[in-house]
Amino acid sequence: MRNFEIVLADDHAIFRKGIRKIIEGIDGVAVCGEANDGLELLELLKTARPDLIILDISMPNLRGLEATEEIKRLYPEIKILLLTMHKKKSFVQLGLKAGADGFLLKEDADSELYRAIESLKQGDKYLSPLLSTIMFDLSLTRPETEALTRREREILKLLAEGKKSQEIANILFVSIHTVRAHRYNLMKKLKFKSLADLVRYAISHEFTPE
Which among 14, 56, 104, 124 could bridge 10 via Cys, Cβ 3.0 to 4.6 Å? Predict the structure, then answer.
């Protein structure tokens, strides 16, 4: 079985070295290239085709958000995990709009990088735990959210934290079938056609039990 290949893009060589060391300890995952900035990254992608790019949101020459947009336009199958020191909701919103698949705070990198990579490998979205508690606001932009139950709001919050269905079931002490049923009801109420759309919505809002 081929490795899950990752490209690192960050203008701080020491930070890249630390990230690479963590990745090298994960079975079935390998770093296939590194870039100092967005322009160098785009040049690298002419010859390399990674499964995932771990990309600093603040880089010289071509910033992370602009690089994300261009990469998703040219290579939509490549997943992108944005690294950031910023804890503002606006950065998450802009990153989602650009097409990012996940967000990891640099201060969480040591403890959360493995979890982030595994989530993205499985086709899930990922959001750094600190972002899930710091960056969300309480405003609900869809009137349909008024009809959500307490349990549905709990599930939305856990989805925003990157939890999978079985993890949600374990946390809430319910069966995985119950979680899937709630997910289906949420998608119906909020008029989403895919789980990815539901997760993006969950990332953009905070849902706390009343």
Answer: 56
